[in-house]
Amino acid sequence: MSTPPVVVVTEPEFRRAEAVFTSSALECVVGPPSESELAQAIRAAKARHAVVGPVVYEQQLYSALPAGGVLARYGVGYDGIDKARATEAGILCTNTPGVLHQSVAELTMLLILAAARHFEQVAGDMRGARWSPRAGLELHGKTLGIIGCGTIGRATARMARAGFGMRVVGYRRSKPESTGDDDFDAITTELNAVLESSDYVSLHIPASPENAAFINAERLSRFQKHAWLVNTARGAVVDESALYDALAGERLGGAALDVYVREPYEPAAPGKDLRTLPRVVLAPHIGSNTAEANARMAERALRNVVLAERGEFAQMDLLNPEVLTRRG
Predict the structure, then answer these.
(1) Cα separation of 190 and 171, whole Å?
(2) Which of the residues are catalytic?
């Protein structure tokens, strides 16, 4: 019987779906998430593949994995992976699309609800033995602007419309095929129209170079004064310094965030700590961190490894298909 391929899985990701990794036909071993130590672990285990989280990998990892190996991102966002460097080394990069939209959309709605009902403040008052009921808002009839109409954006739109009776307007840069468009009341390519009309603006776009600081000072100025910004996408798509200024200057109703430029969270600039402001709800990047989504991400990551071993590249969630030409 042949020896199964060795896959090094970074420790935080391994713990999130331990049952899946330990029961796999592949030999999954735990590795440290830091790049230098992970590279050493890959070499020591003679591993062909690695499953990694959101840590940024810039150098050693790409020489540790062999050509034809898989660098599998446990999750959807892959801004921590240098695709060009991986392609140069002949490494196949993958992610796990379509398996975490339910979890992220549910958290998005939780953050919107927390904003509407002042939940963080009143819950904190109760813990401090203070009885301070506050009038909140119903979501029914309010407008939710969704920036990015992909799988997660569509799932959020369905929940908001069917579950809460919200009016949902989506923004996308261009007008591709209409798959999923009926989840929205309207879809537009006019970003300012969405920002200026929404009570809540929810981000569902990737951290690509063109999306860096997508929500900046100028775009924040387009928000209604009572509106809330909700971000369960990636921290890099928001200029956190500009967001702080808008909140501190009371030019924005509030912000509910699950993702940050620096994680664990650190202020974007000295004296601009979002944790010190009222009307701010913060979570420690838990959008996809549910038992169900964790298991699905692990299964999808390992499926990509198995497909690579079989040479069935067309069925993989391949992020750098150009690597196949280079290898060929």
Answers:
(1) 7
(2) 234, 263, 285
DSSP 5: P
Question: Which residue in 307, 327, 315 sits closest to 70, CA to CA?
Answer: 307
- Whether pTM > 0.85 for this model: the answer is yes
Dump pLDDT digits (tens) for 134-160.
999 999 999 999 999 999 999 999 999
Distance, C-alpha 246 to centroid of its chain: 24
**Could you tell me which CATH class the domain 101-282 is placed in?**
alpha beta
Q: What is the pLDDT of residues 260-318, one digit of tens each?
A: 999 999 999 999 999 999 999 999 999 999 999 999 999 999 999 999 999 999 999 99
Architecture of domain 6-99+290-327 in CATH?
A: 3-Layer(aba) Sandwich (3.40)
CB-CB neighbours of 253 under 10 Å: 18
Nearest CA among 60, 82, 64 for reference residue 73: 82
